[in-house]
Design a protein that fits this description.
By secondary structure, the chain is an alpha/beta fold. 34% of the residues lie in helices and 10% in strands. It is built from 15 helices and ten strands.
Length: 438
Amino acid sequence: MMELLTSGFGVACLVVLLTAAAVFLLAGGKKTKEAAPPAGADPTTKPTVNVTKPVNGKQRRRRVAHLDDAPAAKKKGAPAVADIEDAFKSLVPITLKQMKADGITPYTAEERRAKLDELDASDYPNFVAKVQQSGQGPLTRKPATVFQANIGLHCNQACTHCHVDSSPKRKEMMDRETTDRCLEIIGNSPTIEVVDLTGGAPEINKEFRHWVVGARALGKRVIDRCNLTVLLEPNQQDLVPFLVANQVHIIASLPCYLETNVDTQRGDSVFERSIKGLQMLNQAGYGTDSTLRLDLVYNPTGIHLPPAKSKLEGDYKRHLDDKFGIVFDNLITITNMPINRFYDYLKDGKQLDKYMDILVDGYNPATVAGLMCRDYISVKWDGHIYDCDFNQQVELHPKAKGGCGLTVFDIDSAEELLNIPIATGKHCYGCTAGAGSA
């Protein structure tokens, strides 16, 4: 026996036996089973496939689920997504690969403006005239309470609905000089209560933390329009503690509580990373501590207006809590604007007229009083001033005397904008349809 074990053949056999035993022990002594289909599902049924065709002619195939397809809630316990292997590994390579496959390229300023001009040349009613006819005119400004700054278009995602046309390929970023000028104007404007930071992914901008610290030093509440996946980007391990320390109000994008719908609109792996990001925020106190506000944003994944907020918010809270142990404060519903990428998506699918009919027919006079253009200042990364973030992305400037656009270097306080007319277009019906859009 000893001779057999010491021979080359014996040693080889012993290695094989030991390796097999180790594999068995590491597997917990159990055979691996294939995942079973969801309860009640027909295992022979293939998932529904949605086919969209970008402008360049390439097709994009993704499964699109319906909200009613949500699986039965699981018993509470350990979160369903407790950890993911690629935490703090960038989403950018995945996004770039997807952009290449889908043929997504950034628009020029001329292209963005041309889409708006095309829409405004349509036969739909003039927006200002509609406001006047509904007894809500004239559309004038009120003292500004929110200073919103789009501090850069760079993003780790490239969402199909994105009116900002953000992506990893966008390099436009607000610099320190423009940032400090904005903070100076905010300090000179006592009516400003909130500083609202957006992008792109604003946290990626090198001036983001300077913005937050500066605004908090002025006693202003700060909002971070967060895509959630940025919390897992490289070099962002200390981002959540920073947000907590400055009591930053998080308004986070999650267009659905179903993985297939989110990944269809926002890109592969986005849902999984978003859930992990929400769990990180919850663990830090967001959603449970009254000083750490966490709101989620829903926007439709189809050609329709957002459903009733109260029911949808209840569905979100129930599903996210039961399945992932996630809690949040409020749900904000936003209508997709017929501009930029979403405009092309509608045109390519021959759905533009249908969608504009929905927006125009859904005009609600009660929304006019709360339109953001009335008490917001929206500043682009380069310092130009707009009425809202939507106008900013289609280069629609409010016109000062002489017809010129304004920058933050042309004013000293928000009060100087009060008498400047609000710029509008037919895309503005997106903010007044149904319950309105914030």
